[in-house]
Design brief:
The chain has helices at residues 32-45, 47-54, and strands at residues 2-7, 14-18. With 70 residues, the protein is α+β, with helices and mostly antiparallel strands. A two-stranded antiparallel sheet has the order 1-2. α1 crosses α2. The longest helix has 14 residues, at 32-45. It starts with a strand and ends in a 16-residue tail after the last helix.
């Protein structure tokens, strides 16, 4: 799903660029908010991922599409 990424100089902010044209099985487009929701569902089941998310202020809010901002 990820076409590329960019990491800020401080290493704290990662920007992931999604491939174009991604669609679900019902042909609806995959949006950034869908990816964020998926990451949050994953993090809720994996202790290490949950700890990483909890340590990142913006990622504690499920509707935030930009995680890693200080």
């Amino acid at each position: 799903m990820v076409e590329g990424h960019q990491v800020e100089e401080d290493g704290l902010v990662w920007t992931l660029r999604m491939r174009g044209g991604l669609r679900f099985h019902d042909k609806e487009p995959v949006l950034a908010r869908d990816v964020v929701a998926s990451i949050h569902r994953f993090a809720a089941r994996i202790d290490l991922a949950y700890a990483l998310m909890a340590a990142t202020e913006d990622c504690r809010r499920p509707t935030t599409a930009r995680c890693g901002s200080a």
